[in-house]
Amino acid sequence: MVSLCCSLESWTFEIIVILSGALANPKLQTSVLSICTRISNELGAGSSKAAYLALKVTMFLAFLVGLSEFSVLMSLWKVWGRAFTNVHEVLTHVISMMPILATSVFINSFQTAFQGVARGCGWQKLGAFINLGSFYCLGVPLSIVSAFVFHLKAKGLYLGIVLALTVQVVCFLLVTLRANWEKEVSFLGRKSRMKGVTRQKVMEEMKKQLWLAGPLFTVGVLQYSMQVISVMFVGHLGEVPLSGASLATSFASVTGFNLLMGMASALDTLCGQSFGAGQHHMVGIHMQRAAFVLLFVSVFLAIMLVFTKHILVAMHQQVAIAEEAGVYALYLIPSLFAYGIFQCQLKFLQTQNIVFPMVLSSALVASLHIPLCWLLVTKSGFGSKGAAIENSVSYWINVLLIGLYVKFSSSCEKSRTGFSKKALQNIPEFLKISIPSACMLCLKAWTFEIMVLLSGLLPNPQLETSVLSICLNTFVLAWMIPFGLSSAACTRVSNELGAGNPQAASLAVRVALCVVLAEGIIMVLLMILLRKIWGNLYSSETEVVDYVAAMMPFLAICSFLDGIQSVLSGIARGSGWQKIGAIVNLGSFYFVGVPSAVVLGFVLHMKGKGLWLGIVSAFMVQVILFGVIITIRTSWEKE
Predict the structure, then answer these.
(1) Angle subtended by helix axes 2-21 and 427-455, to nearest 10
(2) Pair 634, 182: CB distance under 8 Å
(3) Are the beta carbons of 9 and 17 closer than 8 angstroms?
(4) How far is the C-alpha of 132 from the C-alpha of 167, rounded, in Å?
(5) Which of 5, 216, 316, 494 could covalently link to 574 via disulfide, CB atoms 3.0 to 4.6 Å apart?
């Protein structure tokens, strides 16, 4: 259920991408970890107050980050598009889109933080339902309506996203606020209790979460940068290789990488609470079990990638691009197996509050990525295949480096068990958490893919797709900070619940929410302030820049809500609420988000704005469900 919860949200974005891909000029590339880690650790340690404090700190940080990103985007709204293109039409479109983009980034900061809280608490099932409702019941439908019915084009598509994020954040917020942190520690037993919450404890909790969130944010940026660099090198080979590589990357993410990441998120709950309870040997066993399952699943995912060309042709993609994508996908297959293992390793270290080795490993691999891409893509004559090969090599190097650290580091002495037959047992129990967790992630990602496909059906699809691509790339960049906060909250909550400290877990949640709220506000302000120049970073076309500027407010709201829901999702994962999270994500994204996006984008002719508002509605529903239904009503003593 953990993987289901995460996948629902991730799939929403993938759907948006696919929808824009239906346009004449389809293109797009589409943190939870730190807050998730902090909350899961505190819950695992039985510290409900500490976990609740982690929540407060995370929300505050998310608020600050979201506000900062919003302010930056709004300040650069007229120039941001120039960083991506010099086409005047695209630049104008980007400017009009920037307000929506900034808004979605601000909302997303909270959504991401809330998801981290949800994972830390083990609420993946609920998170999946929230994501489903936010993105697929509101976001995507609203995007379609706005973009195609109301002719808002790309703005309509992005408005659907903003709406989905808004609903998602509201749902996660309500769930988190109503959580009974005393009950959350029942997963592994109750031990110590925090008698009172003082300013010192709040500051200590904030430091713990930031200590986790910062490195996890860095790891996320480094991993994302490698994908961007690979596509950049391929882009110099020509339009067809670039389109093929982009399409293959998107397809592989939808069908493989997002699913593996979501399933690995089950370890947020299992490893986090085991570590908090002092059952260090179980941390290693859980990791081994997850690795075995993900390797097995990767075999079937690899088979699917073999038929990438045929699948894309069946989806009416251009034959030349489909053939290029099929070849690129074949060389991505080795990276699938490495990626699954790597995600398990990251969770293994993260839930034990060991984060800097991951930063060093990712930094080393990222530093080697550029020269290796140049060698394999440009000098060797492999072309686009060289970029795919380098991606696989990079992931396997990361796996090797982290494996060596776990093998020889004294920090992992208690948790590294060597091969254990116990890892082959209780696999159904792992699947009960991992499947909802995957849904939580994929449902959201697929929503964005749907929005991209929908943008391709709008008038002037080249402009709509270009602007939506800029907005989504900006959204991903802004999401990195809430992603880290979410993971921190997840770890803190799960650790405290595992240790039997419900009050500490409750404190972690409150702190995480405060931090992500502050980050979200800052991000909103930045996006609003930079809305007129942000598009110039991607394009020199006035039409694109103006369009991005018009989209920035929606993007800011979307980012704000997404940050909150990310933290709430992290709390859900740390508490073991994966099934609930999956249901929440399903309802939020597919019963609210997608329908709202369709209505706003096509029926109301809001075009791209309508699509993005659909996403905002999904996030809003997601936040409400997570915040009210789960977190607020949770008894942390029982957890």
Answers:
(1) 20
(2) no
(3) no
(4) 11
(5) 494
Query: Residue 630 — pLDDT band, cuts 50, 70, 90?
Result: low
Alpha-carbon distance of 287 to 309, in angstroms, equals 34
Q: Is the alpha carbon torsion for 331, 332, 334, 335 positive or negative?
A: positive
C-alpha–C-alpha distance, residues 414 and 395, integer Å: 26
**Alpha-carbon dihedral sign for residues 269, 275, 281, 284:** positive
Nearest CA to 240 out of 313, 323, 348, 140 is that of 323
Question: Could you report how far apart the first and last alpha carbons of the chain are, in Å?
Answer: 17
- State pLDDT tens for residues 373-421: 888 888 887 888 888 899 899 999 999 999 999 988 888 888 888 777 8
Amino acid at 77: W
Map tokens 């790309």 to a residue: 154
The whole-model pTM stands at 0.69
From the CB of residue 579, how many other CB atoms can be counted at a distance below 10 Å?
28
| Tokens 């769930």, residue located | 175
- Please give the angle made by the CA atoms of 473, 527 and 472, to the nearest 5 degrees: 15
* Mean of pLDDT values over 553-565: 85
Looking at residue 636, its pLDDT comes to: 58
Distance CA 124, CA 374 (A): 41
Cβ-contact 21, 469 below 8 angstroms: no
**Comparing C-alpha atoms, which of 489, 521, 442 is closest to residue 172?**
489
Are 340 and 291 in contact by the 8 Å Cβ rule? The answer is yes
Contact (Cβ atoms closer than 8 angstroms) between residue 535 and residue 544: yes
For residue 562 the two structure tokens come to 């997404």
CB neighbour class for 368 (10 Å; exposed up to 12, middle 13-18, buried from 19): middle
Q: Which two tokens stand for residue 213?
A: 């969130």
**What is the C-alpha to C-alpha distance for residues 358 and 49, in angstroms, rounded to an integer?**
28
Residue 603 main-chain phi, psi, to 5 deg: -75, -45
Write down the residue that tokens 């629902």 correspond to: 8
**Residues, the chain:** 639
Quote the tokens at residue 152: 């808002």
Q: What would the mean pLDDT of 86-105 be, rounded to a whole number?
A: 75
Which residues lie below 8 Å from residue 463, measured CB to CB, with a gap of 6+? Answer: 89, 90, 93, 153, 154, 543, 544, 547
Instruction: Give the separation between CA 564 and CA 519, rounded to whole angstroms.
Output: 9
Q: Which helix (H) or strand (E) holds 591?
A: strand 591-591
User: How far are the Cα atoms of 316, 478, 532 from residue 321, in angstroms, in the given order?
Assistant: 11, 30, 34
| Count of helix runs (H) and strand runs (E) in the chain | 24, 4
Both tokens of 306, joined, read 């073999």
